[in-house]
Amino acid sequence: xxxxxxxxxxxxxxxxxxxxxxxxxxxxxxxxxxxxxxxxxxxxxxxxxxxxxxxxxxxxxxxxxxxxxxxxxxxxxxxxxxxxxxxxxxxxxxxxxxxxxxxxxxxxxxxxxxxxxxxxxxxxxxxxxxxxxxxxxxxxxxxxxxxxxxxxxxxxxxxxxxxxxxxxxxxxxxxxxxxxxxxxxxxxxxxxxxxxxxxxxxxxxxxxxxxxxxxxxxxxxxxxxxxxxxxxxxxxxxxxxxxxxxxxxxxxxxxxxxxxxxxxxxxxxxxxxxxxxxxxxxxxx
Length: 285
Prior knowledge:
With 285 residues, the protein is of the alpha/beta class. Helix content is 32%, strand content 19%. It has one domain: Alpha/Beta hydrolase fold, catalytic domain (Rossmann fold), CATH 3.40.50.1820.
């Protein structure tokens, strides 16, 4: 089934956002695309308790150079929960890879925000043929860098979260003074099942416990850009330096921004990303 979305926040993007539900063996995955289909592919992966909509402010700034592809991870946004209800990060990455195959994207620069960076890393581990370069935005390198408390209620008895709980959860998602998260992003949290919310969070924790992201990336031989809002309240921004063990890694702190630079300052974030992605992108044949 294919639908065509027109989002007012995407005015100025190259063409209308095309959204599709791709049927995979273990559940439908929602994807959306913007920009010229023959341009180099740029995959944007959202973080936990979010969706493709978290990238909306960035998309018009990226479509001049890229075919921008966004995917709702399992149990997020409009993607179904996995048939086996499992959320292991490598399995999430496998589903992302299958979706890109269905879209005919043979190569992509992959950008992950927050825990989406773990999925991006797993995709590069399991599909090195597909991933030409990686950019991680406020993705903690390991559990030792985590500083934010978990939401108070994540089980069935406390679901859906109250407005107060949502505000508490969202308070650490930004750092720029006066910035307010769009209501639709809070709705993304409300729309999740308690199992999806908890299982996705625990899956990221398990993946980081097994091996830190810098250790995983150091052996992949992929170009790497790490951007980190200096005022992040979920992950210590100083931990960004851990990624310097990756040969050739570019690491940059963004002063005045918090956990979500893609929302807090899209132009600055997009400019830094484009300086990296346009060098490492591969144009479609």
